[in-house]
Amino acid sequence: ATGAMGWASQLADSVAQLTSSGKVQGEVINAPPPQCDRKKLKYSLASKYGYQIDIPLKNKGNVRCNPQQAKDSARGKGKKRIVLDISKEKDVDFVADWLNPTNFSRPPKLTMSPGKLEETCERMKPKWGQVCRENLSKREAFRRPEWWSCDYRRFVASTECAFIGRGGEVYDNERVFSAHGIGFRRDDFKPEPNKKGIGGHHTAVAHHIFSTYPTATGHFFNQVSRLFWLIMALPDDVPILIPSFGISEQLMTILTSSGAVDQKKFIPFKAETRKGSPGLEFKPHFADRVYFAGEAALCTKTRHAPECKSSWYSLQSEVCSWQLALPRQIQREVMACALGLHDYSRSKSERGPLRVDQTGSLPRAIRVLVVDRRDAKSRFLKNHPELMRALHTGLPKPFEIKEFVGSTMPFAAQVKAFAWADVVIAPHGAALGLCVYMRPGGAVVEIGYPKRELPLIFMATALSAQLEYFMTISKLGGHESGMVADVDDTVRMAKEAWTAVAKRAGFKKSSS
Fold it and tell me: How far apart are CA 227 and CA 166, in angstroms?
């Protein structure tokens, strides 16, 4: 395998050429990535994916905002009305709207080796009801196969004379607008008294703040598609409040330096987490007009959950797969534009999904990226070298295999590494959130651990990015410890993933 350091910076400049041995030789092109035309990208993506932007405001200028009066009123006694269906609020405008029907005519299957799914379902009781039909939980009875079947709506909305709280909640005198992963209380929200005043008063502002561990890499990856949606959907003169820390600073630099985002688009603030809380230390900001992104599901009370009382439910509780509602396509396309990934190669196979040539042969080797968590305190593979040896001898040809150690790469190189890959093999962890940058038609193999607390997060993440998903369970380990991979089973699932990618490409023959 090629070392994790040194190769990633060349990924976007390498054109792979298949040799008879099944290995790959690279031709390096030193041309810098092209600048990303922000306006062209904005309208081409709207046309490509069929979403609406630049929807005129209906309620513009109807209210003169007095921040002190609004602040005093917003701290008023009693509960605020939680808005679960924003489409029914007459004084709230949608400035962008994207209807997204579910892609599944039947619930997707979790692909594991024969007998492994049944064994894992038995261990996971009462969890994983969305893939294990017998595992329905009284607490989360809605997590059943119908969990995959909602139609979704992605929106950017705006309201006048409102606050942005430290958990990303938007609230005014009477209401709080609910969304999944936003705010700290589900049913009894009340603004926190803040004697030091507000953090800022804006004419118009949007935000990318969420409540649960907002500076943790994995949680940031999980939520960041909303930021890309705001970038493409907001009016040009509306800035975005965003917490500033390692990964977010690198992302802002990539987007602004490439021209994908105007330099004035972001209002960064120092991200400090509050002691004893998973959220930020953040004084509420007030604006004459606040913009915010969210998702809603067209779910029903009988099929999904009692919470589905309105037409479009805000997914305050995850009664349908929230991951499927996120605008992953926008995230992938904007980063591809910013990093020059659309134009770097002379080969058509590098710009879109892998396809066979006129002779039915693959134009290059299938690329396999193996995540090594040796830089992490938990979920690293104690037998990683053994796994690498087994993959080298066990994968079908043609293939090229590389290793990924996240801490050795800047964020741009991490994105390029996943954009390079056709198959990703990784232990459960933050790096799997980068799979959204893979091209459609790729495959992900997650190495889970044999504990009941294993969350089934990345299956939906992969499916939302149009990727195939496979899982294998390690022999030993847990969320807070190292793991020992089941090497034979991991290689078996890697072969399945290779075959799935080759099949999607139209390839019919392989040699092992």
Answer: 17
Alpha-carbon distance of 512 to 497, in angstroms, equals 14
| CA dist 178 → 4, 208, 313 (Å) | 42, 14, 10
Q: How far is CA 293 from the centre of its chain?
A: 14
Q: Do residues 479 and 339 lie in contact, with contact meaning Cβ atoms separated by under 8 Å?
A: no
The string of pLDDT tens digits covering residues 323-355 is 999 999 999 999 999 998 864 333 444 456 788
Pair of tokens at residue 370 = 């193996």
The token pair that represents 154 in the structure block? 């992605």
Instruction: List Cβ neighbours of 505 (8 Å cut-off, separation of 6 or more).
Output: 353, 354, 355, 356, 362, 441
CB atoms within 10 A of CB 9: 14
Q: Measuring CA to CA, which residue among 7, 19, 2 is closest to residue 365?
A: 19
- Pull the structure tokens for residue 9: 């910076």
DSSP H helical ranges for 102-245: 116-124, 217-223, 225-233
User: Could you give the CA distance from residue 361 to residue 345 in angstroms, rounded to a whole number?
Assistant: 19
> Are 231 and 207 contacting, i.e. CB atoms less than 8 angstroms apart?
no
Which tokens hold the place of 219? 């949680």
What's the average model confidence in pLDDT over 484-511?
A: 91
Q: Which residue has the higher pLDDT, 336 or 69?
A: 336
Q: Do 370 and 425 meet the contact criterion of CB atoms below 8 Å apart? A: yes
- Could you say which DSSP state residue 58 is in? S
Q: What is the dihedral of CA 448, 452, 454, 456, to 10 degrees?
A: 100
